[in-house]
Amino acid sequence: MKKNIVLYKKIPQEQQHRLAQHFNVTAFDEVNEENYAEFIEALKTANGLIGSSLELPEKILKNAPHLEAISTISVGYDNFDLAYLNQQGIRLMNTPNVLTDTTADMLFMLVLMTARRAVELSSLVQDGKWKNSIGSEYYGTDVHHKTIGILGMGRIGQALAKRAFCGFDMPVLYMSNRPNKFVEQHYQAKHCSLDELLQLADIICITLPLTEKTEKLISREKLALMKKTAILVNGARGKIIDEAALIEALQNNQIKAAGLDVFEQEPLATTSPLLQLPNAVLLPHIGSATTETRLKMVECAVDNLIAALESEPPISNWVNPNVK
Ligand SMILES: NC(=O)C1=CN([C@@H]2O[C@H](COP(=O)(O)OP(=O)(O)OC[C@H]3O[C@@H](n4cnc5c(N)ncnc54)[C@H](OP(=O)(O)O)[C@@H]3O)[C@@H](O)[C@H]2O)C=CC1
Ligand SMILES: O=CC(=O)O
């Protein structure tokens, strides 16, 4: 007999068809206020879940007493309570690797956009305000040969270090749980403490996961350590930065600029002071958002769910393999 699964994201037809060959699928393009009760009802018989961009804490998953596996279409899994999943014996799978290069490309784009003031200057053209050759008040900052500081030297951190060192001749500093021989040998990267990195780097990029240890890691005190000319780029999770403190630092020109793909609350509120700041470049969480990569992520997540519900371990991309 087929197992029951709930799909809570719109995915390509072909991939939904693959799921339907293996499972009874209850599908939601997204979960919202209107279909929330229906979603909770579907959880009651669900053996598996697949989707992304939804907080699924214990109080929601309690409605799913038969749940065996969750396949998230993302590499990050901070929207789940891992301790609860472990306690309940629920397998969690994610989609690492397939999005690494695309996310690193986006991060480097955000570095360049922020340093070269791309949004601000593009709007001059679009608003018909480009009348003369631009003056020094609009000059940007060089990126090549500047020191990049990377927080978290995992898959995306390494791909970013490669772009910075090989493409832009940038000395690389990094902060990670442990030294990484590969980046030290190939990109001459130097392992340092968080405080050292914040004091020395010209461009600081966050590629850490959101955990209890990294939440608000970039606090008011840490922002105060950065150079006045520093650029801060976050392509990981918004809650790693104290956003109110960052807004103040940008308003007071305590640091030069920030490039943000992620925010404490998403979508960003239309009342956020960040929207008024010319020295903030804001993107709507698009790290992996290319047609090719999003398709690979869905394919990977579908494979993961089929394996999690139909195979014996070892299973790829298993976040909590301690759960049998
Ligand atoms: N903007 C977007 O659209 C996207 C955002 N992301 C975000 O990027 C994050 C990173 O992805 P990825 O590179 O694949 O993940 P990885 O797990 O490969 O890399 C994370 C790195 O951070 C290190 N780390 C974790 N906690 C700490 C800490 N407290 N101090 C220092 N280092 C730490 C890890 O070390 P160790 O292995 O020792 O724990 C690891 O090296 C994801 O978790 C996700 O949140 C990812 C894709 C797209
Ligand atoms: O934010 C995206 C992810 O894959 O994690």
From TrEMBL:
UniProt organism field: Conservatibacter flavescens
Main EC class the enzyme belongs to: oxidoreductase
Keyword match Oxidoreductase: yes
GO CC term, one of those recorded: cytosol
Known catalytic reactions: (R)-glycerate + NADP(+) = 3-hydroxypyruvate + NADPH + H(+); glycolate + NADP(+) = glyoxylate + NADPH + H(+); (R)-glycerate + NAD(+) = 3-hydroxypyruvate + NADH + H(+)
A Gene Ontology molecular function term of the record: NAD binding
Pfam families with a match to the protein in the record: 2-Hacid_dh, 2-Hacid_dh_C
EC number of this enzyme: 1.1.1.79, 1.1.1.81
Xref: CDD domains: GDH
Domain D-isomer specific 2-hydroxyacid dehydrogenase catalytic, chain residue ranges per copy: 5-316
Protein name: Glyoxylate/hydroxypyruvate reductase B
NAD found in the keyword field: yes
PANTHER family recorded: 2-HYDROXYACID DEHYDROGENASE-RELATED, GLYOXYLATE_HYDROXYPYRUVATE REDUCTASE B
Family: Belongs to the D-isomer specific 2-hydroxyacid dehydrogenase family. GhrB subfamily.
Keywords: NAD, Oxidoreductase, Pyruvate
Domain of life: Bacteria
Limits of the D-isomer specific 2-hydroxyacid dehydrogenase NAD-binding domain: 108-287
